Amino acid sequence: MTLRLELFVDDVNVSLSFYRDVLGFELIGENASYKSLQYEQSRIAVQDIRTLEPGHPLAEAGKRGLGVEIVLEVGDVTSLHQRVQAQWAQSTELKRQPWGLKDFRMTDPDGYYWRISERRR
């Protein structure tokens, strides 16, 4: 079983730049309004929100991703945190959590909330 997230965004190219250049995802497929990306075994896609059918629940106005925390587990969270901090102001400091793992939090250009965590051993 695999899980892939599809995030509906205002500007596909801005999102592509963020996920590729800031977080290090690799572009693996695309068309004009849809980009598929991969980071190790994790896959996401970004799609222009205007492509949704009228009346689609995700097309309604409101905060994107409300009630969801997207967690990306990586092998070297310290290096990724340094990379993100150098390019993206909307990220927190790296912190060891009470459950023992180090992580940091951030929002993407569309307000999706991410927790970037070291992998559980």
Essential attributes:
121 residues; alpha/beta; 2,3-Dihydroxybiphenyl 1,2-Dioxygenase, domain 1; four-stranded mixed β-sheet; 2 helices; 8 strands; globular; Glyas_Bleomycin-R_OHBP_Dase; Glyas_Fos-R_dOase_dom; VOC family protein; VOC_core
Describe the structure.
By secondary structure, this protein is α/β, with parallel strands linked by helices. The protein has one domain: 2,3-Dihydroxybiphenyl 1,2-Dioxygenase, domain 1. The protein is 18% helix and 36% strand. It contains two helices and eight strands; from the N terminus they run βαββββαβββ. The strands form two sheets. A four-stranded mixed beta sheet has the order 1-4-3-2, with helices on one face. A four-stranded mixed beta sheet has the order 5-8-7-6, with helices on one face. Strand 2 (26-31) and strand 3 (34-39) form a beta hairpin. 19% of the residues are buried. The model has no long low-confidence stretch (mean pLDDT 93).
Short characterization:
With 121 residues, the protein is an alpha/beta fold. Helices cover 18% and strands 36% of the residues. The protein has one domain (4-51, 65-118): 2,3-Dihydroxybiphenyl 1,2-Dioxygenase, domain 1 (Roll), CATH 3.10.180.10.
